[in-house]
Amino acid sequence: MKSISTRCLALLAVLVTAALPALANEAAIRKSLTTLQPQLPKIDEVRPGPLPGLWEVRFGNQIKYTDATGTYFIDGEIHDLKNQRNLTEERVVAASRIDFNSLPFKDALMWKNGSGKRKIAVFADPNCGYCRRFEQALQEMKDITVYTFVIPILGGDSPEKSRAIACAKDPTATYLAWMLRGEALPKMPAGCDSAVVERNAALAQKVWVNGTPAVILPDGTRLPGAVGAVELERRLQQVLGGKS
């Protein structure tokens, strides 16, 4: 038992010693970037990059690069030409992945076609033209459940429209009537609690949604922007392993 404990302590010492240079690099990079570029967003993660001597710095779901001292800052993508891979994009996808089942679906509008066994979440603004086109495409999908988090991200009267939808007698039907057919939104009743709009906006910020429509697939990956029914079907098949 004593020899096992000794070996365990020795292994732990090796691991700690190996980690020290990386921790020192991370600390140096954080200090340098915040000193030299104080306007940068909050740094969420610093880790070794895909090339020797290169370090990856993550701001939310944005990936940038620097040298080991944080003196040189690289704003661009890294491509593996031999294997035809966009290494930066792969890291953005991984960093942007969320736990689909942890989303607060009670705050979402919900409708389904067929069995509804294939689920997606959508962040949409009622003034978003691309969201309207995407909503039209969704109507062609089979066996799908759609959870829509309405967020006022485009400014103008988006907050008022979002609250009018939230306070409608049937929010989902009201939203679909507006997005698909351009039917006028009802007036907000006095004393309506539209706090769901603020909760959805906070959720969007938390999961780094900065444009609409933003689509979250069942595996937690996302599709930025409007896609057609064919592309969405392809991605769902890919995520669900061919199950329909």
From TrEMBL:
Keywords: Disulfide bond, Periplasm, Redox-active center, Signal
Domain Disulphide bond isomerase DsbC/G N-terminal: 22-89
Subcellular location: Periplasm
InterPro entries: DiS-bond_Isoase_DsbC/G (IPR033954), DiS-bond_isomerase_DsbC/G_N (IPR018950), DiS-bond_isomerase_DsbC/G_N_sf (IPR009094), Thiol:disulfide_interchange (IPR051470), Thioredoxin-like_fold (IPR012336), Thioredoxin-like_sf (IPR036249)
Signal peptide: 1-24
Superkingdom per UniProt: Bacteria
Ranges where the Thioredoxin-like fold domain occurs: 114-235
Keyword hit for Disulfide bond: yes
SUPFAM superfamilies: DsbC/DsbG N-terminal domain-like, Thioredoxin-like
Protein family membership: Belongs to the thioredoxin family. DsbC subfamily.
Job of this protein: Required for disulfide bond formation in some periplasmic proteins. Acts by transferring its disulfide bond to other proteins and is reduced in the process.
Name the record gives this protein: Thiol:disulfide interchange protein
Lineage per the UniProt record: Bacteria, Pseudomonadati, Pseudomonadota, Betaproteobacteria, Burkholderiales
